[in-house]
């Protein structure tokens, strides 16, 4: 089957995941707790550690199936809103959580690093005529900022993000958006990702799936869901799947 489009998850697939998102999530949890405790609205016994564990952060380890690894910020906000037993509305709280996550990303630009060899590999594929896209659970502002900071944004024909106005992965909406934008059929697209959710996303849309080990999942977790598992995106050559 001819391959015409390459669609990538962002963090853990194109960009270094662990240092950045641990720092960002820790800062966002700390700030949201302070903001809502200062207003005497948060349950006083909820700790920063509990907020982090609720989204899949256990000390310095990120759970591949946790919310931070696979889900949009709206899901984090919903879980934190419930855990903090807030009486205020979820939409306002979600806006605050998004703002704290986006601010943490903007305040830590040195943590935004493309994985080794990614930029050159993407540039080579673009020169060869492949359509390139991103499909991420991150917000619009954070996605565009981090791709620009990493020097990758101009390489993509399509950037899809989860900002509450489109169904997040593993729903196939973002891949369908890439297909429409670039005039491709799903079976001409390869989806690259570092989580089981990414592989389910590709499957749900009818694309090929390549799991990579640069993020949160192990080979054993990815293999039942992927057509191929590689150490990194840079190890992929299209003829492997043709």
TrEMBL record:
This protein's name = phosphoglycolate phosphatase
Q: Which family does it belong to?
A: Belongs to the HAD-like hydrolase superfamily. CbbY/CbbZ/Gph/YieH family.
* GO MF annotations, alphabetized: phosphoglycolate phosphatase activity
- EC number(s) from the headed UniProt entry: 3.1.3.18
Enzyme class at the top of the EC tree: hydrolase
**Which NCBIfam families does this UniProt record tie to the protein?**
HAD-SF-IA-v1 (TIGR01549)
Gene3D superfamilies from the entry? HAD superfamily/HAD-like, Putative phosphatase, domain 2
Its source organism is Oceanimonas doudoroffii
Q: Which GO terms describe its biological process?
A: DNA repair
Lineage, top ranks: Bacteria, Pseudomonadati, Pseudomonadota, Gammaproteobacteria, Aeromonadales
Q: What pathway does the UniProt record associate with this protein?
A: Organic acid metabolism; glycolate biosynthesis; glycolate from 2-phosphoglycolate: step 1/1
Report the catalytic activity: 2-phosphoglycolate + H2O = glycolate + phosphate
Q: Name one GO cellular component term.
A: cytosol
């Amino acid at each position: 089957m001819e391959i015409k489009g390459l669609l990538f998850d962002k963090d853990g697939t194109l960009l270094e995941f662990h240092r950045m998102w641990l720092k960002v999530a820790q800062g966002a949890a700390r700030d949201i707790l302070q903001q809502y405790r200062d207003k005497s609205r948060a349950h006083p016994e909820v700790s920063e550690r509990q907020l982090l564990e609720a989204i899949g952060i256990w000390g310095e380890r990120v759970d591949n199936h946790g919310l931070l690894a696979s889900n949009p910020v709206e899901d984090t906000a919903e879980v934190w809103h419930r855990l903090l037993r807030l009486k205020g509305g979820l939409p306002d709280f979600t806006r605050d959580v998004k703002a704290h996550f986006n601010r943490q990303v903007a305040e830590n630009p040195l943590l935004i690093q493309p994985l080794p060899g990614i930029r050159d590999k993407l540039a080579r594929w673009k020169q060869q005529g492949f359509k390139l896209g991103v499909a991420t659970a991150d917000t619009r502002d954070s996605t565009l900022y981090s791709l620009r900071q990493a020097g990758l944004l101009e390489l993509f024909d399509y950037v899809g993000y989860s900002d509450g106005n489109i169904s997040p992965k593993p729903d196939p909406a973002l891949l369908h958006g890439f297909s429409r934008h670039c005039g491709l059929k799903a079976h001409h697209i390869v989806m690259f990702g570092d989580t089981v959710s990414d592989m389910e996303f590709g499957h749900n849309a009818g694309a090929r799936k390549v799991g990579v080990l640069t993020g949160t999942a192990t080979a054993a977790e990815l293999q039942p869901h992927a057509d191929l598992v590689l150490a990194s995106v840079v190890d992929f050559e299209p003829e492997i799947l043709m």
